[in-house]
């Protein structure tokens, strides 16, 4: 099963989690000091180990999960309001991605892994809905993919047709903050969280701010290292390039913002460097999903 690495608050807590994990669930947990701040209580999945004994230990949970998935066939997303659709499709997207890896494992090579995941699908409202359809046609947020030009040959952007169910399932308008909510199992992806209809806008804003806080770095007080996910967001918001500084500074904690500013010039940085998307397999789960 999955190998986890939590962000513990202290060593004794880490040791206790490691011991309990073997008794109560199939996950091996070990300490990590890689992250801090908003990701302090996150859990990282770095791989999936095939172990029938541990799978048997969680068979009841798996059965319940399969039952929940089967009920999606009776859901009619076309009747949902915008906020309800937004939360629904984010949760379904991320659950389907993780489900695909649990069922089929992790293929070697990024292209094989993405080909597997993008074709994974659920029966939702009597329709077959894949990851690629959710991104391209329903949420309007296509995530980065390795060999993007090659992927476009196998997964061309879908177009709406009259009476097409995808149009009925789609949200009213795209939200650029989805770049900080959707996950394809990559190291550069945002954390997987549970989104709710009533607070989905607030939750997306928090996800955006925490992603920027935890991934933007200042190198030798001259170069600001920023993930490509932030660039995609800024461009979709129509803020590129003038609004980059405002977006990043707005999301920074006060303690970090002081380190990024240059009092002499009144600028946040001298040069920005975009960090390439890291497609290495990884999941970061919020603490609420593993309780």
Give a verbal description of the structure.
InterPro entries: DUF547 (IPR006869). It holds the Pfam family DUF547. The protein is α/β, with parallel strands linked by helices and 291 residues long. Among the domains are: 57 residues, no CATH class; 69 residues, no CATH class. Helix content is 43%, strand content 13%. The protein has twelve helices and nine strands. The strands form three sheets. A four-stranded mixed beta sheet has the order 2-1-3-9. A three-stranded mixed beta sheet has the order 6-7-8. Strands 4-5 form a two-stranded antiparallel ribbon. Helix 4 packs antiparallel against helix 6. The protein is globular and about 55 Å long. It starts with a strand and ends in a 6-residue tail after the last strand. 32% of the residues are buried. The N terminus is likely disordered.
SSE diagram, text form:
Blueprint: E1 2-6, H1 11-24, E2 28-29, E3 43-48, H2 52-57, H3 59-70, H4 82-104, H5 110-119, E4 121-124, E5 127-130, H6 131-139, H7 148-154, H8 165-169, H9 200-215, E6 217-219, E7 223-227, H10 228-236, H11 244-251, H12 254-260, E8 271-275, E9 283-285
Parallel strand pairs: 1-2, 7-8
Antiparallel strand pairs: 1-3, 3-9, 4-5, 6-7
Summarize the structure.
This is DUF547 domain-containing protein. Helices cover 43% and strands 13% of the residues.
């Amino acid at each position: 099963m999955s190998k986890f690495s939590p962000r513990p608050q202290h060593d004794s807590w880490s040791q206790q989690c490691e011991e309990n994990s073997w008794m109560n669930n199939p996950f091996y947990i070990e300490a990590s000091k890689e992250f801090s701040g908003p990701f302090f209580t996150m859990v990282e999945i770095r791989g999936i180990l095939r172990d029938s004994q541990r799978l048997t230990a969680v068979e009841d949970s798996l059965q319940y999960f399969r039952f929940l998935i089967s009920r999606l066939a009776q859901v009619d997303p076309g009747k949902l309001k915008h906020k309800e659709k937004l939360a629904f499709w984010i949760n379904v997207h991320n659950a389907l991605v993780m489900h695909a890896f649990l069922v089929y494992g992790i293929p070697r090579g990024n292209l094989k892994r993405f080909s597997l995941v993008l074709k994974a699908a659920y029966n939702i409202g009597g329709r077959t809905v894949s990851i690629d359809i959710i991104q391209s046609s329903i949420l309007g947020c296509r995530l980065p993919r390795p060999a993007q030009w090659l992927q476009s040959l196998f997964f061309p952007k879908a177009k709406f047709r009259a009476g097409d169910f995808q149009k009925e399932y789609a949200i009213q308008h795209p939200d650029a903050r989805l770049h900080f909510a959707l996950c394809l199992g990559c190291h550069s992806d945002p954390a997987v969280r549970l989104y709710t209809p009533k607070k989905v806008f607030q939750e997306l804003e928090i996800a955006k701010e925490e992603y920027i806080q935890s991934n933007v770095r200042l190198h030798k007080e001259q170069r600001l290292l920023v993930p490509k996910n932030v660039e995609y967001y800024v461009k979709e918001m129509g803020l590129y390039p003038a609004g980059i500084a405002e977006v990043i500074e707005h999301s920074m904690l006060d303690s970090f913002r002081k380190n990024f500013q240059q009092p002499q010039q009144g600028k946040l940085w001298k040069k920005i460097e975009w960090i390439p998307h890291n497609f290495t397999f990884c999941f970061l789960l919020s603490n609420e999903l593993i309780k």
